[in-house]
Each structure stands twice: as structure tokens, then as C-alpha cells.
């Protein structure tokens, strides 16, 4: 007869929970008293060790098994709300049903204790197999330690692990893994809500150093790196300081959020600043002071990570094996790395600093710079003074970097990382790490600028031609495309100084270009682009592109096709460089429409020809014939549609409307049709019905009630009094298959319009975290148009669910009729423009009353 299983009682589990809770509270109190992060991290690991070992004994797990801590827990560092990663190591024999049951119960009890457990159950052979296939698993096993159970089994596990371990392969795999991680965070530590663990410059960068040092047999302490000449004593002190700061950040994030939260989210930045005892200055909030400190430390970590990984890498490809070959009197090639001939090169010849970046572009066989070259560049930033900035040789080298056929993006990023760029262009140095709380930029100013340079540069690369074929073709035909890189570099350089940054940046750009010997035409183009870099997006997104005067005025501003092409390329790159959320196909289509019409005008067409009404109608007819419609079936419907309609809607959209309506242009029943958007993800909805009171409000309310955001709205009334309205709607944050909801929308909206059901106000949605902490004061402007017939209503406000409904309802209450609506969403910010009409608006008092009421309702 088998002996009964011994399992912990409920009271014993509660006692262990209490041990964890009280122990964690004591550790937190001690941390808040003495601010020793290492003490807290090691203390929590030791606390959890004891509880896991005691529960192991109470569950009577056999002595042939081993309980192993792995990952960060194996390293002996456990953050307040981190996962507890464990490995239950088995002998090679397959566990029987009874043992599997015991293990399952043990894991279940760990969850009952309130621990967030990450567990695996494997034999030694299985561990080796998994480690061979996945470098992440291999890494977690390297940091393992035994908690309780069979020590001989654990030693055999370690023996097998190191027998099969290949340090050189591990080095290359971890470097590749780091590069992939950097790509996930857009190669920058300067996001507005960085991840202190995973982002470039976070704790993971420090852990990578330790992993590679451990795998190379160099030890796991920063002092070991000094001993093996991988870093200086000063570098080790900087590493310890940076690690301590990041540990404080992560610990305090966990404490403040009361959960595992590794992002410096807006909700916590102010509280985090208080925890660091930081105070606001006259120009900056406490949170901004905190974030600038974070960015400085993150930048230092990326520099040291790069230096140390380079040094470790030379152990696998030592100089004696790779050899050296001279490049010039200052530099040599050491294998595939650019190396200085000695440590004093930059002191003897400061101009060689810029030459180093240029040589990396000129020698495609070089993959990177040696660690001592990077160290010397970092020290050499202090040699870049006024005399350096005036030297003609340095002017030539910098322009050569910009003009070179390859490597501009990498060169400028590396120059920024090692502060060469900010030292050489002081105006750039002032915007390094500067936050932007405008609700649509997700990068600091310097990182946004480098993203824009990168975007412009991609237009010139054949491998990216499939992304934006038109822009690639325009770039290929553009003479001296490098002037666009300079314009991108200077377009936002004056942010944060107060005043119009476009105007202030012009002076910086002009001075720089003249000092660097650019021709008169190129100087004028760069300066004009910096001044006008916001204009094209504003015209495309806020003005009526079907109005010949709009096209005529914009073309007159550009004056030449070269300037028009340059502004189009820069504008496209600029919008895409703000945030992944800001760019979409609709914005691209608006920019392209404005560009095409303006180019035709500059080539000699009339505004009407540039807008291409006759050509468009012919293309629509051809499309209708393609769908099998007989010639002239469109006549009855088109007779009711004016020129503005054909210009405002694209060819595919008019063809779709005509196919749906040609056989019933004067029916009494409302017609609602929907389809997946052909331009961008989302749903395109067409509504055709006899015009009725508050129709726009009714439609906005309907979409808001469904939780949809309205990306685009075109309001049109035919000559026979029918409303033909088009919307593009999106289900925010959802990966929706819009085909599944087409039938529902068509049926429900038709019924509501047929019976003129009461307007249901949508439920107010939640305001985003960013808006809570960086509120946007709305602005409302109501001005007569140039003809004095209608009014242009411009609204800038914080985006939120139901916003367009709120605007539409307010206008309806004042008897204001909406003729067109241009909806522009920039991250958390909207910039909407409406063409409206109302005789009461001739009275300035009524205008002020409407503006005031809109302002009040738009406040978050």
C-alpha cells in the first residue's frame, strides 16, 4: 500500500504568503530608507528562495530532482513585481504520472502564493537540445543557480551546458539578438515612453555585457572588465553608476504601478521624478528633468555597450589573425574595423574626427569602428570648438559625409551618439534629448530629425523602391539630392527656443550652408524648405484641394518644379518621422493629389486642367465599362452632381458611388453601402438619402456609438436635394475584419435613417494617458472664406471618442450647415477643418458665442 501524499495545508500556504508579503514590505521600507537597489534585489531573490525551498520540502518532491533559478532570478536579482523563472530539472528518466502530478501541484501552489511564475520542466538532455536551438534559452540557463534538490544532477547539468557551449557563436547570436531588439525600438533610447529594461540604453544592454563577459570567461563584475583591459576604471565607474540609476528606475516603476511595469509611461513620469526628489525648473516640468536625466544615462549605456562588445569581439578575431593595413597617416584597417594608428591621433589632428566617419562611408569593407577609435571619438568631442567649426577642412569633410553615395543615416546617428554632431552644430546639441509634448511626436527632437533624414535617404535606395515608388522615382531624378538631407537635418533644429521654429531655423540653416560653401541656389532651397516644411501638410490636410485657388496659391508659393518636388519629399518624410500612428494612406493620398495638381499647373496647365475634370470623368467611365455597365447609364446621376463633387472624390470612389446609385438616383429610400477601404485599413461608408435635418450629427453619432473613429468625411448635396456623404471609419486599437460588420452597418444605419430615429448621444470614451498628463488646450477659429459666401471653421483639439459628434451637435444647435469636413488625426491631436454656412454668422456676436461654446465642449 502506497504512503499517502504529503501536501501543504491551506494555513501553511497562507503562512508562506504572509512571509512573502511581510518580507517584501520590509525590503521596500529598507530601500526607501537607504536607497540601496542591490540590497533590495538580492534580498527579494533570497526571500523567494526560502519560500520555494520550504514549499518543495512540504510537497515532498524527490531528492533526485533539482529546483533551479534561471534568468534574472538565477542571477540573484528579483525586482518587486518581476517574474520568478524556475527550471525543475529531471533525471533523464521520463517522470511517471505520480511525479508529474506532484510537480503540477507544486507549480499550482506557487501561483497560490501570488508569485508570477515562469516555469519549465526538463531533463538535462532536453535542456541541451532547447539551448542549442534558442539563444534566449541558452542565456537563461547560463545564469542558473540551484535552490534545492539534487546537487549532483545540477552539476551534471552545468558540465553538459559548458561542454556544448560555443562562446564565439554565442557572441554573434547575442549581437544579432541585440540588433533585432534595437530595431523593435526604432534604434533609439529617446522614445517619450522608453522601456527601462528592453529599450536601447536600458538594463538589457548592461545584461548583454555581463552575458558575453561570462561566456568569454571574463567574469561577471565590472571590475573584471577593467582587469582584462576591456574598459577603463573610469568606464567601470560609469557603468556602475548607470546600472544603479536604471535599477532605481525599474524598482520605483514597479512600486508606483504596483505591477510589473518597465515603461516610463506618462502616468508615472511625474511621480517617478518625485521619487528621485527632482523638482521643476522655470522652463521644465519635474518629469522633463527626470526624462532628460534618463536619456543621458541611456545614451551613456549604449556607448559603453558598443565599446565593450567591440572589445569582446576582438577576442574571437584578434588583431594577430586579422592583420592590419594602413589607410592613411591617421587610420588603419584592423580586420573589418576602422582603427586609429595610436591613441593620440585626434589630439594631434582634431580634423581627423570627421574624417573617421567619412572613411566608414568610403570603405564599404569596414563594418564598424574599433573600440579604441570609438573611445577616442568620445573623448575627442571636447576638441570640437569654435576654431574646429571654422576650419575649411572640417567643412569639406562634413559636406562630403552628407554628399556621399552611402551611409549618411548611420554616420549621423553615430555622430549623435558620440556627441560629435551636437558639438559641431551647437544648435543641434541644444535639442538633443528635448521632449515634445505635442501629442503626435513619439521621439525627442534630435531623434525625430534623424528619423526624417533616414526617411528621405530611403527614397534614394533601390531596395526600398517598392515602399513609395513615386517618391523613389522623384528622388532618382532630383539633382543634388543631398540638399534634402541638409534640409531634413535643420527643419526642426530651432524647436524649444520660443517663437516660430521654422523662421528661427532658417537663420541656422542659412548660416551653416554659407559657411560650408554651398552654391547660392542650394542655400536658397535648403532655407526655403526649412521655412516651409509645414506648409504642404497644412494645405493638403486643411484646405479644399478641389478649389482652383488653393492649387494656384500653393503652386505660386513653390514657383519651380524642383522646389515643389523637394517640399513633397521632405513633407512625406517628416510626417512619417513623427510616429507610426500618425502616417496613413489617406494623408499620403492628399499629399500626392496636391503635388500632382501643382506640378501640372507649373508645367503650364490651367487650374481646371491641373485638377483634370474631363480626364477624370473619362477614366471613371472606363472603370464603369470594366464593371460591365452600359454606356451613358451614369447620365441621370451625374446630371445632379457638380464639378466640386468630381474633384473632391477620387476616381475609384466616384465609380463605386455610380455603380451603387445609377439605377435609383431619385428614390425615396435611403441607401447605405459600405466596403473595406481600398486605400487604408478601415471601412468606407456611403450614405445617399434625401437631405434631412441634422443628418451630419446623426451619422457622427451612429459611428461614435459603434466606437469607430472617423478618419475622413465628405459632405455633398446634389442639385436635387439629396445628400451624398462619404466616410472612412476605423475601429481604433482593434484588428477588425471589416467584412464581418458591413451587413450590420448597412442595415442598422438604413433603418435609423428611414425612421429618423432619435439621435443617441455616444457614451463618452476614455481619454488617453498622454492627454491626462499633457493636456492640449483646444483652439477654434471661424473666418469667412475668400469669396465671403461661407465660413472656414478650424479646430485643433485633443482626440477622444465622440469628438466629431460633439462638434457636429454644437454646430447643429446653432443652425450651422456643414458643407465639407476635413478630418486630420495626428496621434492624440486632431486638426479638423469645416466649410460651413449660416446667415447668423454674419453677426460677430453669434460667431464669438459659437467659438466659445465649442471651446468649452472640446476641453478634456
From TrEMBL:
Q: By its UniProt entry, which InterPro entries does this protein fall under? A: ACT-like_dom_sf, ACT_dom, HD/PDEase_dom, HD_domain, NT_sf, PII_UdlTrfase/GS_AdlTrfase, Polymerase_NTP_transf_dom, UTase/UR
Membrane-spanning residues = none
Span of the secretion signal? none
- The ACT domain covers 684-764, 792-860
Q: Cite the SUPFAM superfamilies for this sequence.
A: ACT-like, HD-domain/PDEase-like, Nucleotidyltransferase, Nucleotidyltransferase substrate binding subunit/domain
Q: How is its activity regulated?
A: Uridylyltransferase (UTase) activity is inhibited by glutamine, while glutamine activates uridylyl-removing (UR) activity.
Which keywords fit this entry according to its UniProt record?
Hydrolase, Magnesium, Multifunctional enzyme, Nucleotidyltransferase, Repeat, Transferase
The Swiss-Prot or TrEMBL record annotates one GO molecular function as:
[protein-PII] uridylyltransferase activity
Enzyme nomenclature, EC number: 2.7.7.59, 3.1.4.-
Catalytic reaction equation(s): [protein-PII]-uridylyl-L-tyrosine + H2O = [protein-PII]-L-tyrosine + UMP + H(+); [protein-PII]-L-tyrosine + UTP = [protein-PII]-uridylyl-L-tyrosine + diphosphate
The UniProt record lists the keyword tRNA processing: no
Q: Which Gene3D superfamilies match?
A: 3.30.70.260, Hypothetical protein af1432 (1.10.3210.10)
Q: From the UniProt entry, list the residue stretches annotated as the region Uridylyltransferase.
A: 1-326
- One Pfam match: GlnD_UR_UTase
HD domain location, by residue? 445-567
Q: Does the keyword Oxidoreductase apply?
A: no
Q: Which cofactor does it need?
A: Mg(2+)
Its annotated function is as follows:
Modifies, by uridylylation and deuridylylation, the PII regulatory proteins (GlnB and homologs), in response to the nitrogen status of the cell that GlnD senses through the glutamine level. Under low glutamine levels, catalyzes the conversion of the PII proteins and UTP to PII-UMP and PPi, while under higher glutamine levels, GlnD hydrolyzes PII-UMP to PII and UMP (deuridylylation). Thus, controls uridylylation state and activity of the PII proteins, and plays an important role in the regulation of nitrogen metabolism.
* NCBIfam families xref list: PRK03059.1 (NF002837), UTase_glnD (TIGR01693)
- Sequence similarity: Belongs to the GlnD family.
UniProt free text on domains: Has four distinct domains: an N-terminal nucleotidyltransferase (NT) domain responsible for UTase activity, a central HD domain that encodes UR activity, and two C-terminal ACT domains that seem to have a role in glutamine sensing.
* Protein's name in the database: Bifunctional uridylyltransferase/uridylyl-removing enzyme
| Organism this protein belongs to | Uliginosibacterium sediminicola
Q: What is the lineage of its organism?
A: Bacteria, Pseudomonadati, Pseudomonadota, Betaproteobacteria, Rhodocyclales
- The gene it comes from is glnD
Amino acid at each position: 500500500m502506497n504512503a499517502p501524499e504529503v501536501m501543504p495545508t491551506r494555513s501553511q500556504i497562507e503562512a508562506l504568503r504572509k512571509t512573502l508579503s511581510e518580507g517584501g514590505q520590509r525590503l521596500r521600507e529598507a530601500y526607501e530608507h537607504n536607497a540601496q537597489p542591490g540590497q533590495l534585489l538580492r534580498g527579494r531573490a533570497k526571500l523567494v528562495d526560502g519560500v520555494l525551498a520550504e514549499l518543495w520540502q512540504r510537497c515532498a518532491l524527490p531528492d533526485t530532482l533539482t529546483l533551479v533559478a534561471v534568468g534574472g532570478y538565477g542571477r540573484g536579482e528579483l525586482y518587486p513585481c518581476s517574474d520568478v523563472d524556475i527550471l525543475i530539472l529531471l533525471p533523464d528518466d521520463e517522470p511517471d504520472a505520480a511525479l508529474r502530478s506532484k510537480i503540477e501541484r507544486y507549480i499550482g501552489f506557487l501561483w497560490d502564493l501570488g508569485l508570477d511564475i515562469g516555469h519549465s520542466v526538463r531533463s538535462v538532455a532536453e535542456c541541451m537540445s532547447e539551448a542549442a536551438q534558442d539563444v534566449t534559452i541558452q542565456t537563461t540557463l547560463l545564469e542558473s543557480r540551484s535552490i534545492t534538490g539534487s546537487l549532483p544532477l545540477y552539476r551534471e547539468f552545468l558540465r553538459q551546458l559548458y561542454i556544448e557551449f560555443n562562446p564565439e557563436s554565442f557572441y554573434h547570436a547575442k549581437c544579432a539578438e541585440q540588433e533585432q531588439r534595437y530595431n523593435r525600438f526604432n534604434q533609439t533610447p529617446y522614445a517619450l515612453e522608453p522601456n527601462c529594461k528592453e529599450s536601447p540604453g536600458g538594463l538589457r544592454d548592461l545584461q548583454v555585457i555581463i552575458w558575453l563577459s561570462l561566456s568569454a570567461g571574463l567574469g561577471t563584475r565590472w571590475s573584471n572588465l577593467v582587469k582584462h583591459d576591456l574598459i577603463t576604471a573610469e568606464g567601470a565607474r560609469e557603468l556602475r553608476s548607470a546600472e544603479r540609476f536604471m535599477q532605481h528606475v525599474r524598482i520605483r516603476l514597479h512600486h508606483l504601478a504596483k505591477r510589473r511595469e518597465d515603461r516610463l509611461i506618462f502616468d508615472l513620469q511625474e511621480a517617478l521624478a518625485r521619487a528621485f526628489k527632482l523638482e521643476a525648473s522655470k522652463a521644465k516640468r519635474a518629469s522633463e528633468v527626470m526624462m532628460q536625466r534618463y536619456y543621458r544615462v541611456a545614451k551613456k549605456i549604449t556607448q559603453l555597450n558598443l565599446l565593450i562588445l567591440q572589445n569582446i569581439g576582438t577576442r574571437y578575431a584578434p588583431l594577430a589573425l586579422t592583420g592590419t593595413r594602413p589607410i592613411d597617416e591617421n587610420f588603419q584597417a584592423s580586420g573589418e574595423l576602422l582603427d586609429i594608428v595610436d591613441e593620440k591621433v585626434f589630439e594631434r589632428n582634431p580634423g581627423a574626427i570627421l574624417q573617421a566617419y567619412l572613411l566608414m562611408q568610403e570603405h564599404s569593407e569596414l563594418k564598424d569602428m574599433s573600440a579604441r577609435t570609438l573611445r577616442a571619438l568620445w573623448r575627442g568631442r571636447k576638441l570640437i570648438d569654435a576654431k574646429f567649426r571654422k576650419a575649411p577642412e572640417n567643412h569639406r569633410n562634413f559636406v562630403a559625409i552628407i554628399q556621399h553615395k552611402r551611409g549618411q543615416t548611420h554616420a549621423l546617428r553615430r555622430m549623435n551618439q558620440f556627441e560629435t554632431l551636437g558639438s559641431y552644430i551647437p544648435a543641434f546639441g541644444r535639442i538633443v534629448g528635448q521632449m515634445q509634448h505635442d501629442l503626435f511626436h513619439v521621439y525627442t527632437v534630435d531623434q525625430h530629425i534623424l528619423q526624417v533624414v533616414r526617411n528621405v535617404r530611403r527614397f534614394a535606395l533601390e531596395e526600398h523602391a517598392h515602399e513609395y515608388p513615386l517618391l523613389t522615382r522623384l528622388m532618382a531624378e532630383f539633382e543634388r539630392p543631398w540638399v534634402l538631407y541638409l534640409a531634413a537635418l535643420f527643419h526642426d533644429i530651432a524647436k524649444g527656443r520660443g517663437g516660430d521654429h521654422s523662421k528661427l531655423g532658417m537663420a541656422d540653416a542659412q548660416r551653416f550652408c554659407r559657411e560650408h560653401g554651398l552654391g547660392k541656389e542650394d542655400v536658397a532651397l535648403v532655407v526655403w524648405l526649412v521655412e516651409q516644411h509645414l506648409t504642404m501638410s497644412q494645405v493638403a490636410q486643411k484646405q479644399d484641394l478641389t478649389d482652383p485657388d488653393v492649387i494656384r496659391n500653393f503652386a505660386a508659393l513653390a514657383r519651380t518644379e524642383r522646389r515643389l518636388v523637394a517640399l513633397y519629399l521632405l513633407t512625406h518624410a517628416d510626417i512619417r518621422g513623427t510616429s507610426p500612428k500618425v502616417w496613413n494612406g489617406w494623408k499620403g493620398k492628399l499629399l500626392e493629389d496636391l503635388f500632382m495638381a501643382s506640378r501640372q499647373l507649373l508645367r503650364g496647365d490651367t487650374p481646371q486642367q491641373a485638377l483634370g475634370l474631363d480626364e477624370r470623368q473619362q477614366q471613371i467611365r472606363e472603370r464603369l465599362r470594366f464593371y460591365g455597365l452600359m454606356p451613358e447609364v451614369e447620365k441621370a446621376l451625374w446630371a445632379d452632381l457638380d464639378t466640386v463633387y468630381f474633384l473632391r472624390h477620387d476616381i475609384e470612389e466616384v465609380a463605386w458611388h455610380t455603380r451603387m446609385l445609377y439605377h435609383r438616383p431619385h428614390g425615396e429610400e435611403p441607401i447605405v453601402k459600405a466596403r473595406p477601404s481600398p486605400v487604408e485599413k478601415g471601412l468606407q461608408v456611403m450614405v445617399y438619402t434625401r437631405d434631412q435635418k441634422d443628418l451630419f450629427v446623426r451619422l457622427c453619432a451612429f459611428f461614435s456609438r459603434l466606437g469607430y473613429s472617423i478618419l475622413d468625411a465628405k459632405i455633398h448635396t446634389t442639385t436635387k436635394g439629396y445628400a451624398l456623404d462619404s466616410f472612412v471609419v476605423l475601429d481604433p486599437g482593434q484588428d477588425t475584419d471589416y467584412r464581418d460588420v458591413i451587413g450590420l452597418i448597412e442595415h442598422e444605419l438604413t433603418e435609423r435613417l428611414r425612421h429618423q430615429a432619435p439621435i443617441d448621444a455616444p457614451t463618452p470614451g476614455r481619454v488617453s494617458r498622454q492627454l491626462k498628463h499633457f493636456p492640449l488646450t483646444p483652439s477654434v477659429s471661424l473666418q469667412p472664406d475668400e469669396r465671403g459666401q461661407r465660413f472656414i471653421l478650424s479646430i485643433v483639439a485633443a482626440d477622444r471618442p465622440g469628438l466629431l459628434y460633439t462638434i457636429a451637435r454644437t454646430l447643429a444647435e446653432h443652425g450651422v450647415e456643414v458643407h465639407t469636413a476635413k478630418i486630420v488625426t495626428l496621434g492624440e491631436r486632431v486638426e479638423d477643418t469645416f466649410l460651413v454656412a449660416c446667415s447668423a454668422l454674419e453677426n460677430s456676436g453669434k460667431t464669438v458665442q459659437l467659438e466659445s461654446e465649442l471651446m468649452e465642449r472640446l476641453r478634456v
